Amino acid sequence: MTEQPVRWTEATVYPDMWADPDDDPRNSEGPSPDGELATLQDYLTNYRLTLRMKCDGLAPEQLARRSVPPSTMSLLGLVRHLARVERDWRNWITDGEPLPKLYGGRDADFDGAVGEQAVVDAAFHDLEREQAALDAALAGYQDLGERVGKDRLSIRELQVHRIEEYARHCGHADLLRECVDGRVGQ
User: Fold this and answer.
1) CA–CA distance from 82 to each of 10, 60, 65, 106, 110 (Å)?
2) Most exposed of 18, 59, 73, 115 (fewest Cβ within 10 Å)?
């Protein structure tokens, strides 16, 4: 039997939170964004920050630690997976030839998530690059009803799908982080 980590949080104001409100980059003062597109972008930004926060402060071996057998899921695997899907989404909106799959074949994003600093650095670099590339490609679309790509996907559907994907995986990241070092919080 392996020893289970003790549950803990850095938050002192609300014990079910990841950090105190003044230290949480997802908290913003003032009114919420105006308009549907700005609201969707705000939610996506906050989920992206949440994923990074769940990974902060961990060593490469901890980031690569798998959940429960037979799952290949790890925090590092999630970072690589989300880099891969950001590229896939960019392929969805193009009429041209698709970019090659990031990391290769099926499950390579998780299978290649090994506890080496070079792999960690590359994964976060890939994620930042792919997020920026898709954000730039979508910046020209202000009409959420506009249909793009070979499958004529609406920009709204893609934006909601992106939020759903990050939200689901941030839930996984909550559990993975708690298994790694016991830190809890949303």
Assistant:
1) 26, 18, 17, 14, 10
2) 59
- Cα separation, 32 vs 124, in Å, equals 29
**78 in Cβ contact with 72 (< 8 Å):** no
Residue type, 155: I
Number of H helices, E strands in the chain: 6, 2
Rg (CA), the chain: 18
**Domain 35-138+156-181 fold:** Four Helix Bundle (Hemerythrin (Met), subunit A) (1.20.120)
Task: Report how far residue 66's alpha carbon sits from residue 69's, in angstroms, rounded to the nearest whole number.
Answer: 8
Q: How far, in Å, are 35, 41, 48, 146 from residue 142 at the CA level? A: 11, 12, 21, 8
Residue range 102-135, pLDDT digits in tens: 998 888 999 999 999 999 999 999 999 999 999 9
